[in-house]
Design a protein that fits this description.
This protein has about 425 residues and is α+β, with helices and mostly antiparallel strands. It contains eleven helices and 14 strands. Strand 13 and strand 14 form a beta hairpin. Helix 10 packs antiparallel against helix 11. The longest helix is centred in the middle third of the chain and has 51 residues. The chain is elongated and about 145 Å long. The N terminus is likely disordered. The structure holds adenosine-5'-diphosphate.
Length: about 425
């Protein structure tokens, strides 16, 4: 390949007279020096990333633009703008390059960082370990949690180092991730967990003491009230006898409330093993064995086939006994309960509906009935704990619970279960 401009230049030179040639050569020389300086300045600017495009004059005066936008700039921007610290180390661990984020993490100016031994920027106790990172085969990358020594303080970081051989440069690339925020969050979480554990232990102690210590005097109170009621002299006026009866009724009610709270505490705490539960079988057994659910008391119809779900059998039994118990309980006086149970299934979930012809629940009360001690219909037996237990049990099995209802038109409670995965091809 011939170099056409150079050939042209030497032809022109030999065609000129000697005097003109020496004056011309000086000018040529000055011109060439100036161009050399300009080229060197351009190269320096490119190396330091100050240039995004070059305008080069072609042999016949046309201007060509060579842009660096496509190649260098994105990398430069990425490294400079990323939220991680980045270092380039020589083979001896001297820092050849650091991005602005690293300088920010280290709390030092870049001039102080570039040219320093990298381990010197970390806590003295970690420096040996970091030095050793250069020794191991770092081609696949090595990583460590360590501590940056910032002036007057320290900062936990994660250091990921990989060996690098490129463009004649042998050394290491290092990415430094700030762990201060994560560590602080972990610390806060640990502290709040410890506090929660303490509170749970206190509550457990409290519920144990309610269950075992307070129920004994309560039962004594109730028994004495019953004895008093039974042994009452007929001459005692009826209002006074009624007061004694009320003491006994209140003691019984308080005992039920305590029992409900203890059941709830047990549901929250106890291990729920998960197995496949055939809801069809479970409900058939339940309808046979609960006196209030027998055909003499209510019409309860299971529509279609009920699915096999994932859950704990004892817990699911408790859920349906609470839902069905409510469905037969909250009806207007003299109305025979009519209840329909049906299911809707998808690949991963099953929703089981318990629909009744009872009193219904006003929309503004529908959310709170799943909370502890919430009761909407006064004059009916209950503690307000049944649906709270239903919700807790269902949520612990990975499901959900809800209700659709209108006052005077009955209620439809639904519970959602996970269903076992069907093996592909079945
Ligand atoms: P309890 O039955 O002991 O009162 P629950 O937690 O089971 O407590 O229910 C909370 C309240 O929700 C009940 O007191 C009642 O007012 C209302 N409720 C629950 N189920 C029904 C239902 N099927 N029909 C109408 N109201 C209901």
């Amino acid at each position: 390949m011939t170099n056409e401009p150079a050939q042209q230049f030497s032809d022109e030179l030999s065609a000129r007279p000697p005097a003109a040639r020496s004056g011309g050569l000086r000018r040529e020389n000055e011109d060439l020096r100036a161009r050399l300086e300009e080229a060197e300045e351009t190269l320096r600017a490119i190396r330091q990333g100050e240039v995004d495009a070059l305008v080069v004059e072609g042999p016949s005066g046309e201007q060509q633009v060579f842009t660096l936008q496509g190649a260098e700039t994105p990398y430069r921007v990425l490294v400079e703008e990323m939220n991680e610290g980045a270092l380039l180390l020589g083979a001896d661990g001297i820092i050849l390059y650091a991005n602005a984020r690293f300088a920010q993490l280290a709390g030092r100016p870049l001039e102080e960082i570039v040219g320093a031994d990298w381990t010197g920027l970390f806590a003295p106790a970690d420096q040996q370990r970091l030095k050793a990172m250069l020794g191991v085969d770092a081609a696949a990358g090595v990583r460590q949690e360590t501590t940056l020594q910032t002036p007057g303080s320290t900062r936990p970081v994660d250091v990921s180092l990989a060996s690098m051989r490129r463009n004649g440069l042998e050394g290491f690339s290092v990415v430094v991730t700030d762990l201060a925020e994560r560590k602080a969050a972990e610390e806060a979480l640990r502290a709040s967990n410890a506090k929660l554990r303490e509170m749970v232990a206190e509550l457990e102690h409290f519920s144990y003491s309610i269950g075992h210590d307070m129920r004994a005097p309560l039962r004594a109170m109730k028994s004495f009230a019953v004895i008093l009621e039974e042994s009452c002299d007929p001459s005692i006026p009826a209002p006074n006898r009624d007061l004694i009866r009320r003491i006994s009724a209140a003691a019984t009610r308080l005992d039920h409330l305590i029992q409900g709270s203890l059941n709830y505490a047990r549901v929250v705490k106890e291990e729920l093993s998960v197995e496949q539960v055939d809801l069809g079988k479970l409900l058939a057994g339940l309808l046979e064995s609960y006196p209030d659910l027998l055909p003499q008391k209510a019409d309860i119809r299971v529509e279609g086939q009920l699915p096999v779900v994932l859950g704990n059998e004892a817990a699911i039994t408790q859920v349906f006994s609470n839902l069905l118990g409510n469905a037969v309980k909250f009806v207007a006086p003299g109305v025979r309960p009519v209840i329909r149970i049906r299911a809707e299934e998808s690949d991963t979930r099953a929703q089981v509906w318990v629909e009744d012809n009872g009193l219904g629940i006003a929309s503004e009360s529908q959310c709170r009935i799943f909370e502890m001690f919430q009761r909407v219909h006064k004059g009916y037996e209950g503690t307000g704990m049944g649906l709270a237990i239903v919700r807790k049990v269902i949520e612990r099995m990975g499901g959900r619970v809800g209700v659709e209802s209108e006052v005077g038109k009955g209620s439809s409670f639904w519970v959602e279960f996970r269903v076992p995965m069907v093996p592909p091809g079945r």
